[in-house]
Amino acid sequence: MAKSGKQTANPEKVLLAQDPHAVREPRANNLEMAIGHEVRTYRKKLGITVADLAQATGMSVGMLSKIENGNISPSLTTLQALSKALGVPLTAFFRGFEEPKSASFVKAGEGVNIERRGTRAGHHYSLLGHIENNTSGVIVEPYLITLNASSDIFPTFQHEGMEFLYMLEGEVVYRHGDSLYHMEAGDSLFFDADAPHGPEELVKLPARYLSIISYPQQR
């Protein structure tokens, strides 16, 4: 008999650290605007005013305002002073200039079929997208997993990071550590992937679910 874990998310009580609907200023299209945007961003992160930064760097408020608005091109000496006052490396001011933002688009049925450790006949893993060397510091791997035949041995996975499952069709009993979850279409499971996990029992086939794994990017 499947049992549910003790930790259940309550959407009404969860406070998100990041606003999913937040927007950023338009990307800077020239070097001066890119530098100004980064200077303003780091200043605001420190919670200081333009006057505070002016005092720390020995620059005038007017000069700093022109830098933040992208109206002038600061010298290397000026950037070094800002770097020291804001506590960031000099290169931080150039990160927003022509920085590529990647995207991965996969048409229906065109995901990359892969062999995963413990894969058995009737267990199909399709990678739906992958972006390396992104700016977030996190690797995310979205899979579409299809279980369409019984297997005498169920694979148990254990790896770093977090994993999110969303059941699309069918029914499975899914193990995470010592807990079992009877998952049907519409059910989801979010867990620490360092604990042993995997399908324990295939109740209704075919079974399909999304598996989204995230883990720190190795630099």
TrEMBL record:
Domain HTH cro/C1-type: 39-93
CDD domains: cupin_XRE_C, HTH_XRE
UniProt keyword annotation of GTP-binding present: no
PANTHER family assigned to the protein according to its UniProt record, in alphabetical order: HTH-TYPE TRANSCRIPTIONAL REGULATOR, METHYLPHOSPHONATE SYNTHASE
Keyword vocabulary terms for this entry: DNA-binding
Name recorded for this polypeptide: Helix-turn-helix domain-containing protein
Species whose genome carries this gene: Rhizobium lemnae
Pfam families referenced in this protein's UniProt entry, alphabetically: Cupin_2, HTH_3
Family annotation (SUPFAM superfamilies): lambda repressor-like DNA-binding domains, RmlC-like cupins
